[in-house]
């Protein structure tokens, strides 16, 4: 790359870092990329670090030594997180979201890139140090949430399906009890999708009793894999006998009254961390 003015280099370096979260980048990479001395690059990184952390959009961590470098870790400030979740809760309280059977319509929310982006940043904040090798979700509504989170943690996404697809090759399938309707259901994962003894972060859109998430945890045992964290967008507060205990929710749905058209929803366990 040709030698840039410092102002242009700062912009380009910031973009380079933001597009490679949780990736250790040696100073020599920048020095060679911009044809600049390491001392100049170090000064630039100090400026970027100051702005990134002051604006609450992440941290810039420096690792010393020959194998060291700099790593950008996306974060969301608590103040920004509270404001975002409150806006989501306000949207979920709209009476026209109530469906027959007391269900809540959320598909439009999970289809907006700007909202998914903030959800992914929140999960990336709370699970920044979980040391996961990949993110797992179950088809279908959890997929955009998993990918949004993966974009900030720089991790691959593994999708658990309800049946085995020919294009997936040989697979491991298990039966599990759905927490919502107590029915026996099946989930399947390709043998090639997950390496043995992987550390997995589970992300899902909604959790009632936790049956689906428990099913994924049981499926992971077939791969000798472990769970490094569980995050859900909305959890139900109407269930007493939860099947899982250690999880993080962004919002908590405490009640839906179809007669009065009232939805009771508030911030989840994210803010108790």
TrEMBL record:
A biological process term (GO) from this entry: negative regulation of purine nucleobase metabolic process
DNA-binding as UniProt keyword: yes
Family as reported in the entry's similarity comment: Belongs to the purine/pyrimidine phosphoribosyltransferase family. PurR subfamily.
Gene3D superfamilies, alphabetized: 3.40.50.2020, Winged helix-like DNA-binding domain superfamily/Winged helix DNA-binding domain (1.10.10.10)
Name this polypeptide is given: Pur operon repressor
MF GO annotations: DNA binding
Residue span, Bacterial purine repressor N-terminal domain: 5-74
